[in-house]
């Protein structure tokens, strides 16, 4: 399962769809956190944005 965002030159791969998510080493960023549910735990220290992060 993938997602894309206009203006972002990358495809977002949802790690939970992989057979072994541990091979990815954990999340680097959490986006759309305004929709976060109690069961969605974002590890401490991972940058979290309610909406898409600012562009560079």
Kindly describe this structure.
With 56 residues, this protein is mostly loops. The chain has no helices and two strands. It has one domain (1-56). The chain has strands at residues 2-4, 11-13. It has a two-stranded antiparallel sheet. It is globular and about 30 Å long. The protein starts with a strand and ends in a 43-residue tail after the last strand. The model has no long low-confidence stretch (mean pLDDT 77).
Helices and strands, in N-to-C order? EE
Query: Tell me about the biggest sheet?
Result: 2 strands, antiparallel
Instruction: Give the tally of β-strands.
Output: 2
Low-pLDDT runs of 5+ residues are none
The residue-averaged pLDDT reads: 77
Trace the largest sheet across and list its strands.
1-2
* Tally of helical segments: 0
Given the helix and strand composition, which structural class is it?
Answer: little secondary structure
Helix content: under 10%
Count of discrete domains: 1
Gyration radius (Cα, Å) is: 12 Å
**Per DSSP, what share of the residues sits in E-state strands of 2 or more residues?**
5-15%
Silhouette: globular
CA distance, first residue to last residue: 26 Å
């Amino acid at each position: 399962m993938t997602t894309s965002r206009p203006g972002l030159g990358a495809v977002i791969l949802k790690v939970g769809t992989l057979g072994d998510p541990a091979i990815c080493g954990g999340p680097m960023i959490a986006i759309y956190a305004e929709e976060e549910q109690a069961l969605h735990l974002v590890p401490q220290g991972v940058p979290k944005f309610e909406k898409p992060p600012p562009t560079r």
